[in-house]
């Protein structure tokens, strides 16, 4: 499971904040968190306006990553490098939300 690999490669966090999806609060996920932890799991409140904004930004990031990879012929195994590249560009680009000129 990817979560176990993360814990082994990076370390076990003391807290994890998820969106409350069943896959992230029950079953195998929960067993892994308990066996490595206990890892305190916090769930965000449903239908929070900030979550909607974050999900929209993540969706846009994924679109841009796939677009760049397809256009440049980058193998899928390098998706994380492309995601970091796109994130760095977005973080340095003015956004209408902040009224920057």
TrEMBL record:
Superkingdom, taxonomy of origin: Eukaryota
A GO term, aspect molecular function: nucleic acid binding
Identification of the protein by name: Uncharacterized protein
């Amino acid at each position: 499971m990817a979560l176990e690999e993360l814990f082994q490669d990076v370390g076990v966090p003391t807290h994890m904040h998820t969106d409350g999806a069943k896959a992230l609060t029950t079953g195998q996920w929960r067993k892994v968190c308990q066996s490595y932890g206990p890892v305190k799991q916090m769930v965000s409140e449903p239908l929070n306006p900030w979550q909607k904004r974050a999900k929209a930004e993540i969706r846009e990031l994924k679109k841009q990553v796939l677009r760049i990879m397809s256009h440049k012929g980058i193998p899928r195994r390098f998706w994380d490098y492309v995601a970091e590249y796109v994130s760095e560009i977005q973080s340095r680009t003015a956004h209408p939300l902040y009224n920057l000129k």
